[in-house]
Structure to design on (125 residues):
């Protein structure tokens, strides 16, 4: 079975299967460079995963401070209960944000696979 003529970032020969009519796989074929670039830009616009994680660390610190305040008598228990509920709502919002990001990432990967499959079919037709 034929192998892609491309070289990986590690400097080794690509083990991918070439697209019909080409000596390269989808990842290395120069004809698909623009499509790969577009997919890369979309991924970059989504942003990193660091922000929600940093928010969760911040919330955890606030909850710890709130607990210490209640136990030390500096924060009223009823005020702490309301703040705790608000922080819980915030945590749920961050969780939903993470789930949406994951779903968008999966959809983009699926689109790339579909485009690659269509390209392979187009070369074979």
């Amino acid at each position: 079975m034929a192998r892609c003529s491309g070289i990986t970032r590690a400097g080794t020969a690509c083990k991918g299967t070439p697209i019909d009519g080409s000596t390269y796989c989808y990842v290395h074929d120069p004809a698909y460079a623009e499509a790969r670039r577009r997919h890369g830009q979309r991924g970059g616009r989504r942003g990193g995963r660091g922000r929600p994680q940093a928010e969760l660390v911040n919330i955890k610190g606030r909850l710890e401070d709130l607990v210490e305040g209640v136990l030390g008598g500096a924060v009223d228990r009823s005020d702490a209960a309301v703040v705790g509920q608000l922080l819980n709502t915030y945590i749920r919002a961050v969780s939903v944000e993470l789930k949406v990001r994951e779903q968008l990432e999966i959809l983009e990967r699926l689109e790339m696979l579909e485009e690659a499959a269509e390209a392979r079919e187009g070369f074979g037709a």
